Amino acid sequence: MMSMSVNRARRLAELVKEEMGQILHRMLKDPRIGFVSVTDVEVSTDLAHIKIYLSPYGDAEAKRQTMAGLESARGFIRSELGQRLRLRHTPEIELIADDSIERGARIMSLLEEIKKEQGERS
Questions:
Q1: How many CB atoms lie within 10 A of CB 66?
Q2: pLDDT tens-digit profile, the chain (122 residues)
Q3: For residue 99, how far is the Cα from the chain centroid?
Q4: Angle 74-85/2-26 helices, nearest 10 degrees?
Q5: Of 1, 18, 42, 117, whose Cβ has the fewest other Cβ atoms within 10 Å?
Q6: Which residues pair with residue 56 across a beta bridge?
């Protein structure tokens, strides 16, 4: 029984990720919202809560504005997801800024610098 709910949560997370991408790129008209991608979605096993991890692009102010715009659209996003997912109860959603892509790029850049420095020494 438990693995069935875990599998269902996993399938729902994939579906939310896909639908959220469409909502972001086609339905939200708030000028504060810049380019943003969905990096991950976590769904609780009881399907009552969804955490949506988003990676906004731009400088710190652009990211702040994008997240503010998304937060103000949270009710709309939740109802839109509810209609698209056709669940008996629409889960509560939490929008979380995710900077893992940026951190990964920074780490790769630092590793490249170290590699160059080591190459110059040999």
A1: 23
A2: 457 678 888 999 999 999 999 999 999 999 999 999 999 999 998 889 999 999 999 899 999 999 999 999 999 999 999 999 988 899 999 999 998 877 888 898 899 989 888 887 76
A3: 10
A4: 120
A5: 1
A6: 36
CB atoms within 10 A of CB 26: 8
Domains of the chain: 2-121 (3.30.300.20)
Judged by DSSP in three states, 25 sits in helix
The 3-state DSSP class for residue 27 equals: coil
- Dihedral over Cα of 100, 43, 94, 33: its sign: positive
What would the two tokens of residue 66 be? Answer: 């994008």
